[in-house]
Amino acid sequence: MTTPLKKIVIVGGGAGGLELATQLGRKLGRHKKAKITLVDRNHSHLWKPLLHEVATGSLDEGVDALSYLAHARNHGFQFQLGSVVDINREGKTITLGELRNEKGELLVAERKLPYDTLVMALGSTSNDFNTPGVKENCIFLDNPHQARRFHQEMLNLFLKYSANLGANGKVNIAIVGGGATGVELSAELHNAVKQLHSYGYKGLTNEALNVTLVEAGERILPALPPRISGAAHNELTKLGVRVLTQTMVTSADAGGLHTKDGEYIEADLMVWAAGIKAPDFMKEIGGLETNRINQLVVEPTLQTTRDADIFAIGDCASCARPEGGFVPPRAGGAPDGYLRAEQHPGADERQTAEGIHL
């Protein structure tokens, strides 16, 4: 009697999920040792740290995005388009929501996908900390759709400026969050202005642009050494970016940002890139333990605390260190530990926090 293949389902095609599916597909899927399935709500993958380049137009999503279907075919795994709406831990199935087209017509009905091992790799979204007005007035850069929206609104502002030759004042753009996304977007905006000027946007120069970068902490790029943070601050200042540190935004409206210090930062376009949280729907999914920012709480083996057959990796997972603090997410690259699919968990924290032993 043939033993059925072990079903490994990975939810989320970001850096961590896609790399894991690729590695397991090569190691197990191609050799018929397991059935590997990747689930994502999008047809293609675009590395999230590049979204600021899509937003400013310096990167062509159509050229640089990776098709999940094509990649799955080439690397020994299967791809399912859809969003997870439920996890049945007793029946060991996940439910994928129905798919509809832009007209609202049903394409694929709600369906269930069985698993033996489930890996949640859903990444993170921006955390607005329930700041009033942010959802309504700021753009987030969590996915290509939002990046395209920013790009279109930016082009509209620059077109209006060029048509009126600046008669209505400068283009004011405010960015909240001094992490990598906020810093890179601030710098890339000036490159976008130069490019658009060369394309014929009359009067559009860096003097036409007012960029304000707002950071609540003591310095931008807080995860990097102070020397690098300081150098980045200086470079942005040279470009003409107004960098505000130790400045907390208390609310946003259609015309700009209100700060705790009482300043009102006028802005035609606002981006919120401060803080992260796991997607809201994960808060109660499957009865799994989550923390205050919706991350799944995991053991050092990356198994969730309430179900040993469900793992979580990357920004959607929270792994506490025995000595205190948390293991940082490492979704950018899946190491060899991911490949040991038949090995029982039992390595030390450093090994298991970097790889899944299924």
UniProtKB/TrEMBL annotation:
Alphabetical list of InterPro entries matching this protein: FAD/NAD-bd_sf, FAD/NAD-binding_dom, NDH-2
Alphabetized UniProt keyword annotations: FAD, Flavoprotein, NAD, Oxidoreductase
Domain FAD/NAD(P)-binding residues, every copy: 6-317
GO MF term (any one): NADH dehydrogenase activity
Family to which the UniProt record says this protein belongs: Belongs to the NADH dehydrogenase family.
Protein name: NADH dehydrogenase
